[in-house]
Amino acid sequence: MRRSVLLAALFLGAFAAGSFFADPLDLVASAGALRFHSAGARSTFIPGPGGARLHAWELGPRSAEVPVVLLHGLGAASHYWTETAIDLARSGRTVIVPDATGSGRSDPPTPAAGWGIPGRVTAVSALLDALRLRKVDLVGHSLGGWTAGGFALSAPHRVRRLVLVDSAGFARLDPETERALRRSLTPRDRAGSRRLYDLLFFRKPVPAWGFFVDALGRNYRKENVVATVAALEGKDGLLGRETLLPSGTVFIHGSEDAVCLLEDTRSAFPQVPRGRLFVVRGTGHDAPLEAPRLFHETLRRALSE
Length: 305
Prior knowledge:
The chain is α/β, with parallel strands linked by helices. It has helices at about 1-20, 25-40, 80-90, 115-130, 145-155, 175-185, 190-200, 210-220, 225-230, 260-270, 285-290, 290-305, and strands spanning about 40-45, 55-60, 70, 95-100, 135-140, 160-165, 250-255, 275-280. The chain has one domain (about 40-185, about 220-305): Rossmann fold (3-Layer(aba) Sandwich), CATH 3.40.50.1820.
């Protein structure tokens, strides 16, 4: 009996190791789903723009007055926010974590909606309508921050608090710098994937193993990333519209972010009525992953003050 259990454990361990080396990011997504399930999260599908299905996780007590909606960034999905969502739910908040259109388990957008910021904003509106949420606290990371800001500008009455984490949408880039950034976000080979890994993380979650950076590169060459990068337009940016963002908007930014620069956020937040900035020292573009405990403390403070 013990021998059978041991053999089964070895088999499962070998299978998990093989899966990790073959596609570590897929295994991370699966682990995130298991964490959501174990925390009592409910998986739901709702109709999105043009009939495309949107997937979201709901967790925490439904009785909370104002839910928190967490929007992930480019190349990510709802599992990006797993630990953050669980932390907020433990504090008594209702938390909604959607997969953006074309990411995770959500359908790609219809041609009418498109991959750009307007389509993403429309998807957020569809999410809130389907879940009958009149007003939310909206948190967005990177491209999710750009989306959250765009939604707040289009429907300010539906956002109580806006929190922008290492948010895109505030940069003023010259054409060559913009082209270089777009190329960096869609790497063609291992060298490009390694540069992207260095660009995204100041505190590396794992060493830059070849199989891991290869998986990262494959992820950023998928249609949802490539099409989104191609669809981003300056006219949809938040730059120049800071004064129209909700009063009290909070910016959380990693001090070493090499994607969305802290200097751009330092220029943006004073223009927002009662805007505030929290700098997470020693982190890059992904403070929620690089320093989760410190980030969670900062986010709870941003949402409660």
